[in-house]
Structure formats: structure tokens, C-alpha cells
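Margin note from the TA: students keep mixing up input and output lines. Inputs are the sequences; the output is the structure of the whole complex. Example:
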Amino acid sequence: FIILKSLDTLKYGVRTGHPRFFNQLSSGLDVVGLAGEWLTSTANSNMFTYEVSPVFVLMEEVLLKKMQNIVGWLEDEGDGIFCPGGTISNLYSILLARYHFYPEVKTRGMGALPQLALFTSEHSHYSLKKSAAVLGLGTDNMVMVKCDERGKMISAELEAAIVSTKKKGLVPIYVNATAGTTVYGAFDPLNDIADICHRHSLWMHVDAAWGGGLLISDRHRMKLQGIERAWSVTWNPHKMMGVPLQCSAILVKKRGLLKECNELGAEYLFQKDKHYDVSYDTGDKSIQCGRHVDAFKFWLMWKAKGSEGFEAQINKCLENAEYLYDQLQRRTDFKLVFDSKPEHCTVCFWYTPPSLRCLPAGPEKEAKLHQLAPWIKARMMEKGSAMVGYQPLGGKVNFFRCVLSNPATQQEDIDFLLDQIVQLGQYL
Amino acid sequence: FIILKSLDTLKYGVRTGHPRFFNQLSSGLDVVGLAGEWLTSTANSNMFTYEVSPVFVLMEEVLLKKMQNIVGWLEDEGDGIFCPGGTISNLYSILLARYHFYPEVKTRGMGALPQLALFTSEHSHYSLKKSAAVLGLGTDNMVMVKCDERGKMISAELEAAIVSTKKKGLVPIYVNATAGTTVYGAFDPLNDIADICHRHSLWMHVDAAWGGGLLISDRHRMKLQGIERAWSVTWNPHKMMGVPLQCSAILVKKRGLLKECNELGAEYLFQKDKHYDVSYDTGDKSIQCGRHVDAFKFWLMWKAKGSEGFEAQINKCLENAEYLYDQLQRRTDFKLVFDSKPEHCTVCFWYTPPSLRCLPAGPEKEAKLHQLAPWIKARMMEKGSAMVGYQPLGGKVNFFRCVLSNPATQQEDIDFLLDQIVQLGQYL
């Protein structure tokens, strides 16, 4: 009975691993990763101390070190921890920046601090604002810096914002640069931003939750040039590397800061008189107490496919994005939201059905186009043929955002998606 | 090769499901729960929206409603969300209390607020202090209220602390009462605390991460009398109910507050023009974006064993604790840390080996006793025979804290533990 119920659950669920699931940044289903997750749940363990999770704690350290090396930090730099998702990883980065400049905040709270200002681009992920709210900094103090047409932060705008914020009496402490924005897949100019952070002595964070995977690829890693200058980095292997959910890391350049910022030394857990080197008890670096084991599946996948395997996967996803881009350029019934080769695995576009093609440009056409994407998506979901996201942005009406992060997706799946949109659109 | 590596990982890991694993509040390995976790990882889904996780989102709502009913809230009250662990659940409670009294904090930050004060007992979990640090309230403003010998908050001390904090110019907003403390397993007097919170208009949170399971048992639920008066409750089914890690809920009495406090309405995820009732998109209530599916295994276990099954499990664990208590009282070489029947599944005690028995009470004996528990634990771990925690507390030297939350534990396992301690202790 229970087994039947369970299978029903999968039947009525959404098949996020399907090659025609283009809806979310995380997709695919890696069998080795899945085996890792099954073993993790069989171990039913917890990351707080080395004594409870000796193997997993060591694996986490190995993986974090490997990721720090790939980011490009020096041998004596680097620290980190796996977190329940990229939003919490980004939250850590602000928490650490605040503690770095004002360690008294831990005991005395924000009341002891001047009014702080943080900077991120208007195309960055909403977790930055959310974290500012949670940490008591306030969303108003997260300054949204303008982007260019392509969704990249304009560095001159960043510097102007810093200067004008200072004039208002606020104290800037933190800049988030995004490597792979959520919608356009854009990469902020990291070196320019690093220069500005250096000039104003600000904490530079890179949110590479979505773009971090590209560091593994020789062909694409130059898009993240300058990331080695960041003070902290968010990188979600559960996105571009296909690790099963959840697997996100916050990497921190300054060693020891995570522990200082978060440790409380609870005596029932972090006894100092244990019979082993208690520096392995990394749990007090966390803002959590118990913590899910997210490292093992990732470790296992890396062992199984090597960096080359990840690289091949990532390159293939980007080739798929380029293929979609080429198709969209070729077909007159589709229009790209911005007309340049995709830097990452998201492609944004409108479809104009026959019924709208002769309509003159203007508010009426825009309004109809706005309703089209949700309508087509709904029909697709009813048929169960494919799944793709849509959204408005700024002044732009609803467009499709197609994510190509599943290495199982083939070119025919992409053709299928476009044909499906055309087929459904003709009934309008 | 990969399979072999994986099995090695289990071999060198700690068997947290073993009936002689007495080390942590979460233990045991429920096969139905494990099957649920395996299916969850196969679905590889994410809790942000109904469109991506239709079944899991509905299951989460059903479970949260069930838990709210058990807490005792009215039909039109109650909200909640599953979180990555009890610490994050407790963090939510403070976040919500702050927002409830000062909604402007979301946009303007703590700078716009007076200096706030929070209250919890000195025996409460360290996550309360940690959350105060993270949220920017400061650990100094988390006032630690005195407890009695048994580890229960003294309500008169709470009221005195509130009054004196007000005199200092701080604004009290929040009291945490613990239902099942981490070390002693004590239950704070919830009704007395609720009266005080009512008098001073404070948010009352109950941290029932560890004790919440007892609500399912007719025999034990009176220990949490008054919990229905709380404004929020943390309850971890992964502790006393044996659900595989992780499974923790924050329950909130006031409906809609979670969403108001945390929502940002990101347009790429929470489109308003979807083809279904978007009130099912509960993801924006969270401080996370992506969120692990923690509901399914719990739902499956509840279907499989019913409330009666959970009740029988919990009653058995408490009987085991009473059995250990009886044995310790009977044996002259053991001494209880406090001499009253355990209210929950932790029992704290010292062992005095033959070599120390004739030593007069005093600093020398205390010092030797302090070293004993870590030494015995280390030997036990080397042998792999059992695992039990220890710690000092206040002026008390290291004592053993034995946790009996695994329903697979039998009385002979408890006898084994005590015999093992005696056997290892004789070599000293």
C-alpha cells in the first residue's frame, strides 16, 4: 500500500529530470548523484561534529578546498561550508561582511552600528534583498545598481551609487556581483567591480550560484575572470553541475572568519576535551545546528566522472543554448529579448502567433503578447509535453525563459519546444 | 567501484540508527521514512512553487495543519513551513516577532527600531542566541533567565528580568519557552510563561524541537500544557518522531504573517498570471528560495503507522528513560545529576569508578571525575560498542547525557551501556 502511494506521488509529480523540463535552473537526474543521496539518507547522519559524521565531514573539507582552488585562491586562503541553498549562502556573505567590519554586532546587535549600505545589480537574485531583510539591514539599504541591455551591472553606476550613498551619510560595506544572473544568465564585470571594491574597501561577494559551474570548463571560465579577487563566493553544484538537490556552498577567502562570526561553543556538542583533534568539529561555523549531509553525493559524482565529465556536461548545455539561439534567429515568428549569443544556459524570447503578426506595434499588441506566454505554458502543462518558464521584466511584457541545464536534453527536444509553442499558438 | 566506495563510506561512518547510539537527539532509522527519502531524492524536486512540486506542496500543507491542530490552535488560526533544522525554525520565530511589532524593519532595518530585548532560559538551546546574532539583535540582548535545579525556567525570574530590562530602556518583545531542553529534557512552565507574555504583550514562542513529539502521546502531552497559547512553535519530527533527517517545522498562530514578513514576489518564480490558484505557491513564505522536500517522508510515515504508531514509539522511548533512571537509582556506583523521574528521553548521570570511590569529596575528586567521561567515551568509540554524550554544565563536572530516542533500543541495550561503563572504568 505504502509503495503504491509512493509511486502515485511520482506519477502526479513533475518530472524535473525530463529532457523537456526547461523551467528551473536545477534539472536533470544524475544516477551516481542519486545513489549518493540514497546512501546519505541510509546513513541518516548530521554534519555537526566529526564524531558523528567522520567521513562526511572530511569529504566536505576536501570538496570545499577543491572549489576554492578552482576559484583561484591561494593555498593559505579559503574556508567555507555547505548550506541549504544559494539564498542561505548569499545570506552568509552579508553576515560575514557585517561581522568583518563590525565584530561587535554579534553581541551588541545593529543598534551599535551606523546605517550600512549594500550594493547589488537590479538583475541580481532576490535572495540579496531577502537576506538584507532577515539580517536586519533593511531592503531599502540594498542599493540596486543599473544594468546594461544585456543584464550586466554597469560598473560606473556602481561607483556613482557608492559615492552618493556615502554623501547621504550611510556606510557602504558590501557589493554583490553576479556570475550568471537568474533570468538573462549575464555575468557582471568582476574585475571592474573588484577595482571599485578595492578603492572603497568594500567586501566583494560573487553570487556564482548559477554560473559557478562554468569555472570547470576551459572554454567558459574566462566569463568569471576576476572571481579570485572576491572575498566570498556562492556556488551551487545543484545547478550547473547537476548534483541532486540540495548542494550549495559559501566559500570565504579569509580563513577563520566563519567560525569567529558564528561560533557559540555549546558544551553539549563541541566539548574541547574530546579524544580527537576538535578542529574537525566544523559545525559551529554554521548558523544551523543540525545540518543535512549535502557533500557525499557531490563527492561521489566527482569521483565517478572527474572534472572532465563535469566539463563535458557543461559544455554540452551551453551548446544547447547556442543551438536554441541560432534557431530563434533563423525563425521570423520568434524574437530574442536581447540579440547576442547566450553566455550561459538561459535563452529569453517572445513568440508572435499568426493572429498577432499583422497587428501594428502598440499597447494592444503588447497586452496580447503579455497574455500569450502564460496561456501557452498552461496548455503545455495540461498536455504534459514540456515545461518552460516565463515572466515580465522591467518594461518588457511576458517572455519565455528557457533553461538548458539538463545534459540529457538533445537538439530535437529544443526543436520540439519551439514547434510546440508554434502549434499551440496557432489556435489563438 | 563507485558502489564499493559508497559502502566504505557507510562502513567507516557512525551507525546513528544502532540501538546503542545514545549520543544525539536524532537517532534510529525508520524504513518507511527511508523509503520516503529515497523517493524524494528520485523526484529531485524543490518546494518553491506548486507548479514544480504539486504533490509535495499539498502534503506539506496537510502536515502543517495536522501539527497545528495537535498544538491546539483554532480552525481559523495557524500557518507554518518546514525548515532546514530547528535552529532555523527558532530563527523564524524571532524574525516574525520582530516583524509583528515593527513591520518597518523589513525595508528600513534595525536602525529604525529601539533596542529590543528577548528572553530565554539558561538551559535553552544555543540556537536562540545564535539567531539573535544572525538577525542583528545581538546576543547580549538575549536575556538568559534562571532555571531551577531541574532545568525549568523560573517564571518569577522571567518577570523580574522583563521589568528590569524595561527599566534599562530596552523594549522586550519575545520570550522563548522550551518544551524539552537539550540536556536535561526539562519542560518550562508554559502556562505561567504565557500569563507573563500576556501581561507584557510579548510574543511567546515555544521551542518544542525536542519535546513536540510528546504531544502525540496521551500519556505525556500534559507536560506541554499551555503550548496552545504560544504565538509560534518549533517542532522537529526528525527528533522524537524518528523521521529521517531533516524534518523541522515552524508553526505560526497568526495566519499570513509568514508571507508578509518574507515575501518579495520575484517575477521569474511567483508570477501572478499563472493558470492555477497561486495561493498554493507557498515558497515566498520562506527565507530560502529553493527548499528541500522534507514533507514526503513524514507524510508517508504518518500514513503507515498512524498517530497510534507514533504514540507507541514515543511511549516506549520514555519507558526506556524511566528504566535507565531506575537502574541508576539502584546502583551505588552511579549518581544522577538530578534526582527526579525523567520527563523526557534524556538521563544525566555520573559514574564513580572503584579507584575514585574512597577519595574524599573535593577538588581532586572532581577533577578526576571530569576527565572520566571523555576517557570512557573514547574507549567505547575505539571498541565501537556504544556511543553516548557527555558535558559539563554550570559548576558541574562532565557527566554522561544518555539520549533514548531510538525505539529500537531495548532494556538489554541500556544494561549493556551501564555494564560497559563499569567495565571500562575499572581500568582507571
